[in-house]
Fold these 3 entries.
Entry 1:
Amino acid sequence: MPALTPLPTIPRSRRFSLPPVLQGTACEGCGALPAADLLAEMLGPKMAVICPASCAATFSLSYTNASWKVPFVHWIFESAPAAATGLRHAYDARGMRDVHVVCFAGDSGTLDIGFQALSGAASRNENILYVCYDNEVAMNTQGQATSSSPVKARTPTTPGGVPTLKKDAPRIMAAHGIPYVATAAVSHLADYRAKLRRAARVRGFRYLHVLSPCPIAWGYPYEQTIEVTRAAVETGMWMLYEIDRGRMKLTYRPRRRRPVKEYVALQRRFAHLSPREVQSMQRHVDEGWRTVR
Amino acid sequence: MDRIELLTGNEAAARAVRLSKPQVIPTYPITPQSPMLASIAGDVAAGVLKAEFLNMESDYAAMAAAVGASLGGTRVFTATNSQGLLFMAEHLYTASGSRCPIVMAVVNRAISVPHSRYADHNDALAVNRAGWMQLFCEDAQEILETTIQLFKICEDPRVRLPAMVCYESFIHSNTAEGVVVPAAAAVDRFLGQPRVEALLDPAAPRALNPPTPPEWYTEFKFAEQQAMEAALRVIPEVGAEYAGAFKTRPRGLIETAEPGGRCVLASMGSIVKTARRAIRELQAERLSVSLLKVRTYRPFPAAAIREALTGAEVIVAVDRNSASGSHGVLYDEIRSALYGMRDPPRVVGVIAGLGGRDVTVRQIKEITRRALKREPPFDRNDEPIEWLGLDRGRVRDESPQARPLARTG
Amino acid sequence: MKELRFHGRRLPRYDHTAAFVGAAQLLARAALREGKQVQLRPPWLFLRGYTPEAAHLRVASEPIETYSQEYVLDLVAVTDASILGAVDVTAGLKDTGILLVNSAKPVTLSGRARVAVADFGAIAKRYAVDLALPIAAAAAALSGVVSQTALAETVGPEAPGASRRQSLRALEAGGDAVASSRR
């Protein structure tokens, strides 16, 4: 067994990098790392990050060092957007209107325990950028299902497979009437970068949802994080789009969508699926694409 | 047939749940309780436990669902700690005020800020006025037995209150020990069918929780107090019944070891276990030291404690909890229990093990010797309290934050 | 009471137990079979895969009356020799204590009298069992914490494709591999 291997998904940037003391806390192949890294690069240095309990919070700081080179607070699980609201208004009161207030949260803190606060801040159209990195489980507590877990995925609390469909977070957020919503994926970094750039220029509540796979929860070799993410996009399981002032626009359309079974085959969390179940997944994806221009 | 199995504290709790057959289990994960949930979910998926296992969207939702399920007439179990327990705080009062016999495992963990996943008792103690019984376990065997017993205690018509079975994050939850697991049929006989009245049931419609004017409120709180006092009798009763049925030693409100000592070490949870060895070694040095284990913290067993401490000279209350501006709970509540005694023992306090810090045999022996010799701070009449193992170099008078190490060379 | 520590690297998977934990679990179960008391503490931190971590095991004939994390160790086992430079594996080891290392190559540690080294990986491979088995057997043989009989009665097939007979042979080979290091 080699000594600790370098983390394959971690780029180095001015505003985010794991100091040695924290390199034990982010797993090899962690999909959240590039999501955090580009966020800091594109919105910093004038930004403050509110990060609720999550894997990201765990790899973000220790008593001797921090991964983020911008102001950062490890926050309480359910209330990041509420805290962000307070910070935003404090900065406004102090005339610091050019400082971005950003939430960086996992799917659990965004869509389950944090949903009340998220909906509240979006309803008020707070001038906040919210980035949800989605590994489709509550991974900081070792992988329980969330409302963002895909149907039929095996998790420790759904040993028979998740019984319900993945929550359509971006469209729910768009239904709040907020000015900018976008999806992204850590396999398509240029697309993510462009969306961050656009989001940085919009005032009001902005919501980005970034697919960020977890090799342990999804069950694939850690070197394959980018490949697995790309498969999600190329099979159409994950769409890359923006909803800009209510109008939806795809930012990437696979020339020919690969069959869903190729995506499923890469991951142990789907290993128990029958061919019929995979077909039903394929039908669901096909239907989702039928309604998209 | 009883078996001895290698079980962690979490697994012991999950096994007790399997044996006790709750019918609805609303859950939300939090470190380090989550493996227990996975174990229960596995039992339900495998058909070994017939229950509705609910993945709720947050901890307070889990408690709201627990009360809803209890009002629907089912036996209910859930688990949480720390942040989750506090997030549920409002609904804890809903449960106790509604007289729901819910059993909840609390895997005692320190509360953010500072953020910690490790053990101390501040979480359960932060809600010690919410009307829940609170029992603190010493080891995995006690976790299993107490969880089973609590279903019977809570559902007893004289009680009808919810209860927390408390054990420590990582120290108990993730540490594996040999646990004697009773046979399922014997536990069925011991617990019987759930005695949970369906307060929301079309068969007998009721309107629950009216807006309450002052002339009605007090007497409901008095009834809860009476139920807690009844629990002081029911808890040892059920413990004795369990011991008879399963051929184990009876568990009740408190336990003592090496009674009659000039000095008594009083504590709860895992520190009790470590104190046992310290006391043995001190006795070998001819020091007169006893142990007082507080198993039942709510209701607080004042009379039993008074009786156990009569004749002692000094009590060392070792609190794995703290409250700035006040004291550890054992320090305060033991002193309170001794008030009015003729020649009461002195009580000194030790704050130990916060945020999961290790408490060693050596440390316990040292403070005991110092308490017996009345060495500072135990010589003071006013606030004779020591923070065990305090590292003054680490005291930072600020919001906890990362401070990069100074560059060298 | 005997105290042992097992070092290894964490595996970034739910469905596999790393050998250093597996060996400790096996010894704990065998000890229960002998009517002993056990206390097994796995690593508490959730660190990324392949990080060096340690599990602690106490075994005694009387009740183990401490949860303290201070250990005075009779044996330290290292399942992955690559951690030897990075981690002080002998911290807390008694002067008379034994260091047991899984390695195909010789291992030298200055100042440490009793070091037992064997290629347990090869044994595990030969019998198609988990690495935990031969290491547990060696640790038992060297520390006397449980008998080989109890271990043999505890173990079932320990890897897909392995049989009980192979598991027993792997245990035997593990014990034999350190026969020369026993007093």
Entry 2:
Amino acid sequence: MKYIDEFRDGEVARGIARRIGEEAQPGRTYNLMEFCGGHTHAISRYGIKDLLPANVNMIHGPGCPVCVLPIGRIDNAIQLASDNKAIVCTYADTMRVPASGGLSLMKAKARGADIRMIYSAVDALRIAQENPAREVVFFAIGFETTTPPTAIVIRQAKALGLKNFTVFCNHVLTPSAITHILESPEVRELGTVPLDGFIGPAHVSTVIGSQPYEYFAEEYQRPVVIAGFEPLDVMQAILMLVRQLNDGRAEVENEFTRAVTREGNEKAKSLVAEVFELRKSFEWRGLGEVPYSALRIKDAYADFDAERRFGITYRSVADNKACECGAILRGVKKPTDCKVFGTVCTPENPIGSCMVSSEGACAAHYTYGRFKDVKIKAAESPPAGVARSAAIPTEVR
Amino acid sequence: MSTVKADYIRPVDFRNGRVDMTHGGGGRAMAQLIDELFAASFANEWLAQGNDGAVVQAPAGRLVIATDSHVVSPLFFPGGDIGCLSVHGTLNDVAMNGARPLYLAASFILEEGFPLADLKRIVESMAAASRDAGVPIVTGDTKVVEQGKGDGVFITTTGFGVVPPGVEISGNRARPGDAILVSGSIGDHGVAIMSLRENLSFETTIESDTAALHGLVAAMIEAVPTIRCLRDPTRGGLGTTLNEFARQSNVGMLIREAAIPVKPQVNAACEFLGLDPLYVANEGKLIAICPQQDAGRLLDVMRAHPRGADAAIIGEVVDDPHRFVQMETAFGGRRVVDWLTGEQLPRIC
């Protein structure tokens, strides 16, 4: 497939891997955080870790929009559908995120709540037009990538004079989350999370540009390389980070030049600025309350704000005690450090949010990589006449 | 003197008519629909008898029974419709047990208000599929549900067939060292349906691969009677079928991404829709597992058959008590091909 296969070429990947191996200095470790779930997914799906030397570690970041959504906000959405009898429209991944009382949007739907899975924010607007007698709420989630489409439908709803359409806004901001991680005691004081550099977001950066990362590259002296979501993008970004660290540089570099500029998408940014403003504080699952890390709808569009129309009150709900999603989202723990990983908590029955979306660190590891966790024992004796050559190498990581 | 009028009933209006509750009520309207549509289209001696069941000659040997419900949305799609799909789906389930299909039964749940013209098109498509396959639809049933309680039409078909002597095909027979083959490109059906739903058009239309595979299976079994496992990777796709085999046989699988045939337009659509072709449904493909030494011959036979022209050997069965299906990615790494979580595409068949 043109423009896709070029970025998944195994030959080129081995070439980059060789260079990473040559340039990564022995006796030094390179701890790199990929912020985005899209990168986490690519790393797991294409087996990128298999190509990296042992002293280059990838740490999964919190950049999975579904994963960072706190339980209380999902509870709010369920209440909108069950108590306010609204049609709640949302993206597919949000459906399975565990809420309070053993519920999720999916389970609430099975109990009769009118919750609809949509592909695009525009679908929610269409549903509102088709159901003029019903309240229709778009449960909007996501980072800067999904914010402009939400801004567009709010503007369209206003232009159409729709009275039954509102948005429950849960849009969050990437740079503040990265800063929060860098400010955390684990990184700053305890040193339990060694973080040497970041692979910066792909799609988010197409909107906000590379400029917003310049502050913390300089302030915290950590290099950032913005990379696309294809596996070669990730490999190239790792090589660029290794080089920056070897040179003692802490710059923002852009590997994803085919889509990202320094300034980003001015039109999208101005749309967002017209409709949204900063929230003083927002709770992130795993990170807790993070100041100025999310958006809310401006007064000029208050008629389309579900929080105002329905008087939604937020109540913080603690995660399941056994769940390590919080620590995993901060990079403090790995999925396999969690006691319930792969036993009680699986993609079919997620306890924590990292197991829900395919971009979540736990789901990605469970789905693509968990065979590396177990030592595969050879059978006692092979069945008669069967060659053993095909057995899987007994690799343990 | 009284005159009795000739026994005339106005024919069913297949141009503008719609299904109403009387078509399932057991009265004259239902009898008329059965006569003029189902019995007329499927046209065979068993339906002509007008009994509630079919009395057929019991074949000697081992009987295979398979049943499948079809709820696909939309009902008509490039490459087929719910009618031929409901025939192919069940014929294939019978064939994947190594059997030669002999008879089909069909059951319809119709929604009040469904256009009779569409129903006629669907039934005629079933009739054509059954004729092409040489397997008659010998008995059936029709029910009508109120508007809003169905989605146009749901079709359940049941197939009967016999397994030739000496053939032993089952999902639990895969052994380490065996070869894994696929009969052609994967993901066509699911992507055809999804592109239609999402109004996506590509330079070339992606057509469903819906097809009956019992002819291909018969040729394969004749040439390589040692085939151990056969299955058509419908919902859940190739990835799910391999996991089913791995669990049933208590083995692992190792496949090579580069060897799996996927049409470029299917790949492109999957990329666009965020789907993985490994998990996208097929309706005219099969997965076969056979001893390694027979794989070359089996591949030749499959490629010589029109339904298997793009067949490929995609990997082998390995010894693994964890029953992982692993894949060497074209990129050079290795990953698990896990069970599908949740539902990738609803109402696909």
Entry 3:
Amino acid sequence: MEIKAIGCEPLQLKRVHLENSHTLKVYQDNGGYKSLEKAMAMSRDVIIDEVKKSALRGRGGAGFPTGMKWSFVPKDSPKQKYIVCNADESEPGTFKDRYLMERDPHALIEGMLIAAFALDSQTCYIYTRGEYQYLIDIMDEAIEEARAANIVGKNILGSDFSCEVYTHTGAGAYICGEETALLSSLEGYRGHPRMKPPFPAVEGLYASPTVVNNVETLTAVPQIIEMGGEAWQKLGTEKSGGTKLWSVSGHVKKPGVYELPMGYAHMEKFIMEDCGGIRGNNKLKGVIPGGSSVYIMRSEDVIGKDVRMDYEGLVVAGSLVGSGGFIVVDETVNIVESTKNLSEFYKHESCGWCTPCREGTDWLVKIFNRIADGGGRPEDAQLILDICDNIEGKSFCALGDAAAWAIQGAIKRFPEDFMPYLQGRKTASIEPEAQKF
Amino acid sequence: MASVAPTEYTNQVLYTEEVASFTPEVLAEIDWHIAKYPPERKRSALIPLFLVVQRERGYLDNPGVNFLAKLLDLEVTDVWEVATFYSMINVRPVGKYHIQICKTLSCRIMGEPEITEHICNRLGIHAGETTSDGQFTVSLVECLGSCGTAPMLQVGFDYHEDLTVEKVDKLLDSLK
């Protein structure tokens, strides 16, 4: 697997290839915790301003401007404020945060401490998905190392700023990547999303002001403080600054985590050259560019087109940046089968809290199962789209929207794959016999 | 209460009064988890503690639940309610080695079906079952965040990536 920067100097990936990059010594030898020192000499408003100027947008999937999110935290609140890192990375096709935490855990700690300083918080939690237990061990070790060096804990670096950083583990629930569901889970409840407003910035963890940021968002913060918000923004585009990590999986020759400047202009070049092209010289069939929850793109919408890789560029091309998880599929994949697979994912991960999502995702799987077994009917296409329509925009949180988008995109854009199934035929299947168990 | 039948969901006799006990080392670990949260919010430790209890007892059994309810001042039903939400919390016994194969799209198209079939054939069980000697459980699970090194599986907490049938054979041999 490749881990490298293309079209820019590595920033997020600056240290990941160094030996013992997870240790405090290597981190500090390479400029680590200098940004924290710098930030602690700045005023809180100036730090938030720099983050605003950087045009950093949340890297978890929603792409909300980070500086604006921070500025929603009420300054005069007497309540304890919390910084929560969302390391529940579970969007299919996304695996970037894992490598940041594995190889550069101190960057995350530094990012959280700067956020905590700027927002006057004394407690940070890192909510990591339970399956990433080995990362929690790495983070715990890094936190202890930082504590021994007076970087975490009381009177950090001899100042009057004190802040604790704790790890917290989830236990297998995609929904806990949704920030309000994450907070429910962190409080020890089922991972059900909460009504917004009040937004977490006002009433989040324990009904106190809380900022929830993705790992990659927080590791960008030390870079922004180091080089200044404006310089960092200029690496990317006006509306989305800096660099971004893209996770690439599926049928490319060189899957991996790639750091690109925001607004990288050649999605075709990225897939066909930077990622080595399609395995076995097969033809590209489609790309899901932002984790499973976004519209799938046909090869014609990528090849020969100048698709710019940023929030606006991908919308123009008919999809979304999401979490930046590319799933590349070649001509051997039947889109009915791949969409059935994703519908099973959303059914399994729907938290059951609201009816449109709980019932809708269940029915979609039932219909996909019937179609895949040769029981398809011509009216099924409309039936599936109707169900998607009844989920999209009507579910309590964005999980329902995601489930609908993944399916709508496929059925609208790959009619040639659906047609034989809708006439009751059963075509070549990627489903194994093992799946019938 | 001994005559109460096991529930279909958990295979366990519910409503036992028995409370699990743990070694001082484990109790210290439990305290370490609870200390992360404000004293009046110790419920926050519930999910991390599920994983501790499960590791110690093999799965989250009723005495384990009773222990957590007492520890965190919760009703037993509160604890069950949360436990049954999370897919990593086993409310039924699982094998000594819990093999969790990722079945989501990237793994699926990169060869997961072949891996699953091979493992199931070798162990003589279907996905979702446990071998009769209690050694292995095979589960198909959703995305484990290892898509760039697909197909992959997890045994306990260990990731095994870029799998081939040969690699799987080696792995299974090493677990026997």
